[in-house]
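Blinded run. Sample ID left blank on purpose so nobody reads anything into the name before looking at the predicted structure. Input follows.
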Amino acid sequence: MNKLKKTFLAVLAVLVVLAIGGYIVLKKTFLQEFPELQVKPETGKWYEVAPEGAVSADGSPWRAFFKKGTANKFMVYFFGGGVSVDEYTAARGRSVVSEGGFYSDNVKYQDYVATWGIGSQDERNPFKDWSVLAIPYGCGDFHCGTGDFSYTSLGGEQKVLHHHGYTNYSGALGKILPYIGQPEALLVCGYSAGGWGTSILAEDVIAHFPNTNNVTVCVDGSLGLYKDWRYVAEHVWKAPAEITGRIVSDNIILDCLLSIHRDYKDRVKILYGCSVRDEALANVQTYFDSKRNDKPTKVDGDVQQKNLKKFVKQLQDSIPSCGIFLWDDIVTQPKEALTQHTILLSSDFFTDRSGNGSFAKWIDDAVKGYTHSFGLDLVDKKY
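Blinded prediction complete.
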């Protein structure tokens, strides 16, 4: 027995060492530790930006990330991470429900901005020399809330979800504006919930740069039809009136992009990209439609594809100059024919998509004045 116990303890010790070593490798490879921005930033160095009083949904401290680039060009980059629209979803933040959770309720482990995709220093990245303000998620409100929402936790306790997305974003932007000036090019972009945030807050960002005429707005992997969006924005998130006033349908993305086009038609190029049967969007749409919270099926993918087809036509009819990039070459659930969710934050951002070029080049082309579309026929493809 003693020999067996010693063997067990030896194996356990090895496993602990391997786990610690793996975490250290993971942290060095993917997770970054940035100093807090307190003095004039060094060019090319990432910093944490911590507005006073900024909190995540669960009450933990919130912060943004900022890099002063060598080019006189500026990107505001909104992260994704789900959404909360009612008491059921509020009680299921991802730190509480790891599988089936609805939203990131804090910004822990969101330091990957400098590691992958559009925020990285990858040599293929046309934006690597830009100044960047990255807005991590952790609010459940598409980056547009200013209030608190009371709910009952899964354990029966009364709790508060801090929908402070707009408060946090505006505080971070205000802190870094002195280091930006008037850039010659401005890109507002985001993925998933950050794509909604991009459409919602692009006008707010643009207003800070009245002399910048080269402006691009890019939404990646965001679409969800919900008849109660206006109510949620007003009463759950407590978004500012200028934001809630733009929401007039079941499609926030469409409402806000149309508003941008009306208000800044001659200054702003609008881009929209999405995989055709996006697994995460299919999943959340099932909750909006039928309050289901389970793995999406092929039928759910069919609904997502149908909704995307309708939305693309609306964009083309209302904003003929809009650039659209649809793709289906990364299948994540073969049986259900579901495709990858978002691309801005991954290394796939630089990869040729089905012979149409990379997502990175598509955005860069628009910044340079050439807006075009790819993959439009995929909405009619049979899967």
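Unblinding after everyone has recorded impressions. The first strand starts at residue 46 and ends at 49.
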